[in-house]
Specification:
The chain is mostly helical and about 60 residues long. About 60% of the residues lie in helices and about 0% in strands.
């Protein structure tokens, strides 16, 4: 299956309700492109976790 065929199939992800950012990430992954830009940096991850802790409290493990 060619890359164009794969990307054409993946274009339907949005039509079935997937987030456009996820679809773009999957398309880049399938095309062999870098996908780090779709994920938060370490600093952003810490910020996100701190916000979750403030909103929802500590998570018991």
């Amino acid at each position: 299956m060619s890359l164009d065929q794969k990307l054409n199939i993946l274009s339907y992800l949005n039509k079935i309700g997937f987030n456009s950012a996820l679809t773009a990430c999957v398309c880049d992954f399938v095309a062999g492109k870098e996908i780090n830009k779709y994920f938060p940096t370490e600093e952003e991850s810490i910020e996100i976790l701190e916000k979750c802790k403030r909103e929802f409290g500590e998570i018991e493990t």
